[in-house]
Amino acid sequence: MATVGVSKLKKIGKKIEHAARRVFISSLQCRSGNHVLVTKTSEVLQLPANPTILFLRQDRLGDAIISTPVFTELYNKYPAGKFIVLLGENNKGIRDLLPIPCEVEVYRKKPLADMMMLRRLRKKKIDVLIDLIDNPSSTSSILTAAISAKYSVGIEKANASSYAITVPLIDRAKYHIARRIAELLRPFGIDPEHISLRPQLKDLTVKKIQGKAGIVISAGAPDRYIPVKINAEIAEAIIERGFASEVAIYFHPKDRKLAEEIINRTKNQHITLAQPSAVFSEYAKGIVSCEFIVSPDTSAIHLCSAYGIPVMGIYAPFPPELHYWTPIGVPYEMIVQYPDLGSLETSNVIHHIEKLLQTVTPKVQEAVFSE
Question: For residue 67, what is the domain's CATH number?
């Protein structure tokens, strides 16, 4: 009974928290619009040569990876600057792979720990806070207000009054998320039309294994998981068609049973479980060792972009107002499976892998495909 009581209290607490956040956002929306909207590239911010710049990116791993071009562009402009990245519990694993010298703080959703974190940030006297999230976020609004940087920069959205300077939210259906976020560079005099949007992560000293392919089975949401039966059939077909001589199954430790079920279904010694790791940089090393990857998970897809790995991306349908989070700067094929990934057909995946490999190594694969 005590457990039930605690559970009810937690639910009530959550409802109160969400209601308070809604009130906070509403209050921001009612403020007079006194922020500056920057629509053209102009050095609006008058900063010292060594500014302290804080990035807010307290959401998911994929979001953090696609934000790295913004990090590197600002580091290149202010090499003497001090950079801080505020991550969340879901994406703090990227800290070992961040491409610039920086400090990392973590938003933990724990009042005492977060109060101490905010106190540390306030003491650093932040010159510019940059909110990299393109959705309205009450968390970002609260953090922005609490940190009280000299300048705050965000994307024009429902909580735009949280920021001193905003940039336009460009068409979410037409433009890739990486391009939309790059708009945040305009107030620094950097034209987002003339930068590379390819994710940039720290170099990994990993040797690529010839003939090795990888299948990622874990994803950030239940509707993005490919059925075990289809994953097993894809792995077998990759070996049978000669696309690879070995297939490694990559998974989050919580999905070990799903991974083992794939192995039990295939019973092929060339299809093996990758070593599971809760350390994201170790997981990345496994991905980088492959010649190509099959994945429904966008964080793995963006790892492939960063490290030059050809990738077969498989997507559940997105809302029509959103651009798919496709790879940038690497050969890829993609399937958007309607109505959901439960209807995915192995033959279609193999067809697209064949197309991908013909693009990557047409001469090597020619003999295989002509059989």
Answer: 3.40.50.2000
